[in-house]
């Protein structure tokens, strides 16, 4: 995808294998630099001679591992060979079921005693630095435990505890990967764990393969039916896992376009899967100036979609405000309305493609998904009424009032888009689901009161009452009672029946104003309090959803509205008549021509950003340094602006050996001195073990580096 640096993944945590242009190590993930072993491929992808695919396949499941069985690694290289995904999933399920046979809350599982007896032993047993599919298998088991099943109703609370344990194990194991693999190679490994696809039926028996859904799957060069760990975390709403530092590091890198990859989707409207780019790091200075893959970077994609919606709302306002000018002119076709209809049709096509990209379950996690769906329904109703009125009479104007009802939705959607991290909007999105669900239940139940009162009106024998009082009138009276606006329904209750009419009306008033509103307020308050309590986790979760949805696989997203309509009409038939190679080159050429100004601006901006970051003696920087000297506390920041020299670090190491300093996590803080000493001893042993293992891996890596090359 664009210019990608596929850096080698070492088995150790030392990132000094890749050096920048100055020969120094950089912790900035955007400072992706290369060594002499890397070569530029024909599509602008920078790949080392030892590719990521080969290095991953040594210790995990890469593309070379196949789909039919476990990969056989080099025994001299891998002391713990990985297992197939199918085996890992059932191994984790077997261990979790054996470890949890009672209901536990999150606080109880994170308590010192259960953490020492259950969580940490499972982490030590399951963690394999050569197997990146362990986190994926844990999240897959969490989804299965959370899925309600009628024959396991008695064990549903136990399964929820097991799902919580799976999330805790996934967090700890991903943190182990983060601690053992630092630098750019560690970022690449974490990205492979979270956004690289895994097949859950890898090495599964034939009877399991026969039960897979046999829907039409688009060919993706061996990547069909694969899912990513980040997608499973979003589906299972694993907010603690997504909020962990290791996961947020990958999410932030994908959001800014530092980590690039070819996303996996269910169905593409305009598929172009001729080339599949693995998970890699992006280097703007070696990319093509018109790099069309940057159109699906989440940070850039969000700005593009915001511009599209601003154009849509501008055309909408012009269409509605100029409606009266064409109303009194016979045969006049409103130009603004035509432009709005064409652009809105392309925008609706883009939303439909976004829904089928990853499914409604993932798309509904987006903050403004319900607003987009509401506008789509309003626009569809407007289009239907508009077509009917054009067929009946050119002087009919019934469609525009329908379109006017979309104004609250569109203006609210602008606020949601501009402030996606606002906790009020996040809470509103969650409460809207509860409100909609409970409202539908109330409407379904209260429809019986409308039917009962209507039947009473027809059985009284009063012809005028049965003629004047219709179901619409009864519904209006009940709604006024529900919202406390008017008491006409209570006053007219005796007209239906002397006893039964007031009984039904008063019963409805009690149930609607007292019971339903009390339940509704209690549910919304509970939802809001949960979101406010976990505010940071909710914001990180929504950011992860926005990032995951921003990386698009469908080529239709590279065409801005209304050009996507032309692509659907022209490019899709071309794909059926020509081969994948010809279609790919034609598709890329058309995308670059249509988006040439935007791609040129993106390329120049990214190169300018890299140059500005690398420039150490900039004139403006020196001026700002002199200006910052006016701050009386600036000298404190100067002390921490650079790392101490080597002689100072050597002296500090002689004074304090870091291996002797014990870092105890919050959940390991024991309640008794004995528990505290055991926790400290366990943490110290794990730290020493990690240090020894890291040294062994560095020796092993340097030993086999020349042989691999």
UniProtKB/TrEMBL annotation:
Signal peptide: none annotated. Pfam families: LHD_TRPY1 (PF23190), YVC1_C (PF23317). The keyword Phosphoprotein does not apply. Residues 15-24 have a biased composition (Polar residues). The chain crosses the membrane at residues 306-326, 338-355, 367-385, 397-418, 438-457, 469-485, 505-524, 563-583, 589-606. Keywords: Membrane, Transmembrane, Transmembrane helix. Residues 1-29, 670-709 are annotated as: Disordered. Residues 86-269 form the YVC1 N-terminal linker helical domain. The keyword Cytoplasm does not apply. Residues 334-607 form the Calcium channel YVC1-like C-terminal transmembrane domain. Residues 695-709 have a biased composition (Basic and acidic residues). This is Calcium channel YVC1.
